[in-house]
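To: structure subgroup
Subject: Chain for Friday's discussion

All,

I'm putting the inputs and outputs inline so they're searchable in the archive.
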Amino acid sequence: MLFNSLPFLCFIPLFFALYFGTSGKARLWVCLMGSYLFYGWWDWRFLFLIQLLTLISYYSALKIGEYAEEPKKKARFRMLSVVSSLVVLGFFKYFNFFADNVVSLFGMLGMHASYTTLTIILPVGISFYTFQTIGYTVDVYRGKIPVERSLLNFAVYVAFFPQLVAGPIVRASNFLPQLREDQPISGKNVILGLQMILWGYVLKSVVADSLSLVVDPRFNDPFRYDSFSLFIGAFFYSFQIYGDFAGYSYIAIGIAKILGIDFRENFNRPYFSSSFSEFWQRWHISLSSWLRDYLYIPLGGNRQGKLRTDINRMLTMLLGGLWHGASWNFVIWGGLHGLYLMLQRVVRTGFDSVFPHVNLKRLWFKIPLVLLIYAACNFAWIFFRAETLAESGYIVGRLFDFGSYHIGVVPHMFHVMKGFALILMVIVLELFAFIYPLEGYREKTWFIVASIAASLLLIGFLGTFGNAAFIYFQF
C-alpha cells in the first residue's frame, strides 16, 4: 500500500479510529493486523517471511537472555538470528547478482559455468526490517536492552506499518518501551504529526514526482540527450531522491506522532553540510547510525590508527552501497563516499597543519565547502540512479565534455522550469529553517494555520499525482 494511493487514504482514518477506540492488547492487535494488511496489500505471500524472521529473532533473544551467563551458548543464538536475517536478505536481494558475477569470473578465467536464473521477487522493505531484527538481537546480546517477553509487542516493532517498507530504521531501545503504555490521543501530537505528514506529501507529490518527469526520461535513455540536458537530469535527481525519501520519512514520523509514538528524525537538511561526515549525520540518519553502531565500530572504528580507520570507513560505505541494491553502481556509489571520507581526513589534516588558526566554520569558508560537498554528492548520485555501468559512464563522460554544452532547446521545458522553481522553493524554505529553527513556532496558532494551508495549496495546485512508488521501495 502506498502512502500516496487511494487505498491508503481509505485505510488510515479507519486505522486511527480503531487504534484510539481500543486499549491495551486490543490496541496492539489493531496495530499488528493493520500493519500486516498494509504490507500484505502489495503481496500477501511475503507476510510469511516477515512473520518467520519475527519468530526467529524473538526466540533467539529469549535464549540469549536465558543463557546470559554462558557466552558460547548465547553467541550461538545471536548467530542464529543474524544469519537467518542475512540469508533471507541475501537470497532475495543478491542471489542473481552474485551468481551472474561468479559466471562472469569463470568466463574471464577461460572456464565455462552456468546456472539457472531464478525469477525472484524482491519483498518490499526487506532491507529495513532485516536490519531491525539484527539490531534488536545484537543489542540484547550486548546487554544494552532487556529481552522483550511479549511476542505481540515484538511483532508490532518489526511490522509497524508507517516505517515498515522504507524506514526510518527504528531501534528497539526507542520503540519497544513506547508500546508498554497506551498513549492517549493528543491534540498537540495530532497537529505536529499533521504538519509533518503534509510537508512529506509536499516533498513527495509536489517536488519529487514533478522532478521525476525530467529525471526519468534522461536516465532511462541517456543516449538521446545532450550534455546540458543530462546535467539538468543529474542536478534534478539529487533533489528528487531527497524529496522522495525525506518525504516518506516525514509521513512515517508524522503518522507515528499522531499515534503517540516518537521516532527520531531521519533527515536534517543534508545539502547544507560542510563536510562529508556531516552529510552522513544529516542524510538517512537511521541507516548511517545503524552502519556506525553495528558495522563500523565492530570493525574497529577509529581506534586502530589512521590507515585502519580509512579501511573501516571504506568497507562500511561499500557495504552500505551494496545494501541499497544488487548492482555494481551501488557499490561504486558507496565507494565514492568512502573515498570522500578518506580524502576529507587527509586534506583536513594537511590544512590544519599549514593553517592552524583558520576557522573553517566562518561563513566565507562554509559556503564554498557546502557547494563542494553538494557537488561531490551529486556526482555520486549519478551512479546511484543510472541503471548500468555503461549508462553511468556515458553520463559522466558527457557531463565533462564541456564543449558539448549548448543551452538551446531543452526537452520538457515546462517541467524543467517548474523543477527549478520547486528546487529554489525547497532551498529557501530549508535555508530559513536552518538559520531560524522552527521549534519555537510550531505550536503558535498562526504558524500552524499558515503551514497547513500552504502545504494544502502546494499539493493541490502543484502536485503531480499518479500513485508513483517511493524510490526506496526498491531497497
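Points worth raising on Friday:
DSSP finds 18 helices and no strands in the chain.
The chain has a mean pLDDT of 87.

D.
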